[in-house]
Write a structure and sequence with these properties.
Number of strands: 9
Helix content: 10-25%
Shape: globular
Structural class: alpha+beta
Radius of gyration: 13 Å
Order of helices and strands: EEEHEEEEEHEH
Number of helices: 3
Strand content: 35-45%
Protein name: Glycine cleavage system protein GcvH
Largest sheet: 6 strands, antiparallel
Amino acid sequence: MKFTKDHEWVSLDGDIATVGISKHAADALGDVVFVEVPEVGKSVSKGDSFAVVESVKAASDVYAPVSGEVVEANDALSTAPETVNSGAEADGWFAKIKVSDASQLDALMDQSAYDDFLKTL
């Protein structure tokens, strides 16, 4: 699993990246009440806003950590947005993206680097 400074995570399986927000981000947001996932077939570029997560505290954009095409969206989040809180780095994933440039993952942080980054906040 790799992480961005915007608190997204990505897990690669072949050329398919599963993307969500980190446990830290979910905890900071508080109770998630709404999630808008991207449409299947949508092309995304690294750094683009591609989903929205809303909590009782705030609404936040979710940014694509890699470029590619959305091949699956976690539609279950529309009826159970609280899954982001209970399983941010598991069942609370937002989308699966067919990665167009796997080298983009090289710039992301591993768990240890992300933990160190969180200490600076």
